[in-house]
Write a structure and sequence with these properties.
The structure is a single chain. By secondary structure, this protein is mostly helical. The radius of gyration is 43 Å and the shape is rod-shaped.
């Protein structure tokens, strides 16, 4: 009878150990599934952000190119206006000299 009780206790402990191992395995599987889902979600967000960054980079490059063109045009216009003002100033100077000579 004592051996039978010992055997029952031994089997009960083994069953308990097996149940614990199965529970740990199930918890680990659940944790792994949750983590995989989170990793996929983060990968999707990262890819979306990278696409957005790439699109914004293209937009910024286009705007920079346009800005460079605008600046170049403005500089050309300023150069032209400076030449016009210089020519006008030279004419005025010449007229002042003529007026002085006629006085």
């Amino acid at each position: 009878l004592l051996n039978t009780q010992k055997e029952l206790i031994k089997r009960s402990l083994e069953n308990h150990k097996i149940q614990q191992e199965l529970l740990v395995k199930k918890v680990m599987e659940t944790v792994q599934e949750v983590l995989q889902g989170q990793v996929l979600e983060l990968q999707n967000k990262f890819e979306t952000n990278m696409e957005s960054i790439e699109a914004n980079t293209v937009t910024l490059q286009a705007k920079c190119s346009q800005f460079k063109c605008d600046i170049s045009e403005n500089i050309s216009q300023l150069d032209s206006e400076t030449e016009e003002w210089s020519a006008c100033a030279a004419r005025v100077k010449g007229q002042i000299s003529n007026v002085r000579q006629n006085i």
